[in-house]
């Protein structure tokens, strides 16, 4: 059965999701921060983690942004193949939702119109919109505001297949070490392995959508996530880079088949304010 | 925790050591990428800056808009490294402190030692919490830059940690060395 969904509904929901994502930190991230308070051995680090929990609580209660950098608005749309969208252009409807959400929600507008001329667009548009056609008759909307500080510390590298798992681990560790305090640790490390240049970057971003600490369903990848988390937390960077054993809250890896000649790896780092909210229409 | 009051003089700066946690009080000025670029253009032309740098502290922040009744929206620090190319010049002209998050370049650290200025970190991403310490806020230059405009802020007990002091101390290196048990990337 074909379901009709108006793009005006998409606009209204995107607007609300932009506000919700920026005000209310997910319970998964909040719990991970709370657990880290108990485990952190650096007294300064412990204090910082406690401040981050308090900050998230103030933001939620007062409905103000967790972080002033309310991000590039990244939107994932999973469109059921039995959905008929009507009433206008879907992408324009999404951007209108961003426009309304960022204005009504007093969220910071951080997008410039041209990467070199750099004049603020004033409404945080355009968003970065990813669409996927899936079975079914639902529309799944996920809004992921992504801050510039942690995004700037992300990277893609095309490894040689012979570099194997050790090469992959070395690249990820080096990237987190280089980012140090800049990406607002404790971080969530999104990793993509396989595919092509653009596919691997998308995999790394999608990895950030998984609830914090939920493991990959593939056994050896779950093991790799665990090993990397231990290694990263041995770097000593700690909360905000002031030293400690909590540099990352989680490492999430997504994989995809690769070309016989290629081993692409992408690291997309998220700060502790790992924000994302989803709704089904 | 020790309270510090702006403007800062050499005597105040001499007492600060890396790793020390302090509460900052008084007036601050904000500035980030686009505002720095404009300040440097004024310096090159030999024109007056929108505020007197002497003894002042610059906070790298682009606040979220204030809701009705709020002084300011979320206001946590942004990554300082983007301002590195401008900072030594401002320190040579009397700026005594900068506040942000993340690494500074070797040039900025050297200029801090030479001109007696300190680099403080605020807690990145704690924008809602920090907004509570900001008692007054007004845009004093470049309103057209939106979140990148220069604001004059008045803060009460703004929690900061000294990262780079005037003696060459660097909390990011010291903190990491203290807790690192992985030498792969050191």
From TrEMBL, chain A:
Its EC number is 4.2.1.2. Residues 13-278 form the Fe-S hydro-lyase tartrate dehydratase alpha-type catalytic domain. Keywords: 4Fe-4S, Iron, Iron-sulfur, Lyase, Metal-binding. Transmembrane segments: none annotated. InterPro entries: Class-I_Fumarase/Tartrate_DH, Fe-S_hydro-lyase_TtdA-typ_cat. It holds the Pfam family Fumerase. GO terms for molecular function: 4 iron, 4 sulfur cluster binding; fumarate hydratase activity; metal ion binding. Belongs to the class-I fumarase family. NCBIfam families: PRK06246.1, ttdA_fumA_fumB. This is Hydro-lyase, Fe-S type, tartrate/fumarate subfamily, alpha subunit. It comes from Desulfofarcimen acetoxidans (strain ATCC 49208 / DSM 771 / KCTC 5769 / VKM B-1644 / 5575) (Desulfotomaculum acetoxidans). The lineage of its organism: Bacteria, Bacillati, Bacillota, Clostridia, Eubacteriales.
UniProtKB/TrEMBL annotation, chain B:
InterPro entries: Fe-S_hydro-lyase_TtdB-typ_cat, Fe-S_hydroAse_TtdB_cat_sf. Gene3D superfamilies: Fe-S hydro-lyase, tartrate dehydratase beta-type, catalytic domain (3.20.130.10). One of its GO terms (molecular function) is hydro-lyase activity. Residues 9-174 form the Fe-S hydro-lyase tartrate dehydratase beta-type catalytic domain. Keywords: Lyase. Pfam families: Fumerase_C. The keyword Lyase applies. The keyword Lyase applies. PANTHER family: L(+)-TARTRATE DEHYDRATASE SUBUNIT BETA, L(+)-TARTRATE DEHYDRATASE SUBUNIT BETA-RELATED. NCBIfam families: PRK06842.1 (NF005310), ttdB_fumA_fumB (TIGR00723). Belongs to the class-I fumarase family. This is Hydro-lyase, Fe-S type, tartrate/fumarate subfamily, beta subunit. It comes from Desulfofarcimen acetoxidans (strain ATCC 49208 / DSM 771 / KCTC 5769 / VKM B-1644 / 5575) (Desulfotomaculum acetoxidans).
